[in-house]
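Lecture 7 notes: from sequence to structure.

We start with a single chain of 177 residues. Read the sequence below before looking at the structure.
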Amino acid sequence: MGLESMIGEGYLATKLEDVINWCRKNSLYPMPMGISCCAIEMMAAAGPRFDIARFGSEVMRFSPRQCDVIIVAGTTTFKMAKVVRKIYDQMPEPKWVIAMGVCTSTGGMYRTYSVVQGIDQFLPVDVYVGGCPPRPDNLLNALMLLQQKVQRGECKGTAPAFIGDFRGRSIPGSLQK
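Now the structure, written as tokens:
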């Protein structure tokens, strides 16, 4: 009666949610899904020069059940899309997706019958990283943007962020209005 009227309903739960989001933000466990040439730049970002450990993401896990971020890097074929989706479904909630490279985001220069023209057709992407291949520092910027989204409690492709150069390519298909 007295306390609820002073601080409002749900105050403790709201602040607890902020603490949980802060913890999630500082301990992202990425799963590298290196399908093509962008994977080399992802490996470079994990090296000592770019120091991905500053963002709490230094331990790349290769088990989907231990990860909360999947970094899809490279050209995705329709055959591989089923595998990527299956791995994504095995990840525990909450989970986020980073699309690394123009080929992952829009299909890139591979406009053929066998290549998915953007993984946003089967995964909810949170951050797009442009470039062919994208520089490692763009991946670090993507991780920082993702940390901001996690802090705010946003997820599942609701308002994707874009980093880097898409080389004249349009923004990924499902986002065009």
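The helical segments are 2-7, 11-25, 38-45, 78-90, 102-106, 136-152. Keep this in mind for problem set 3.
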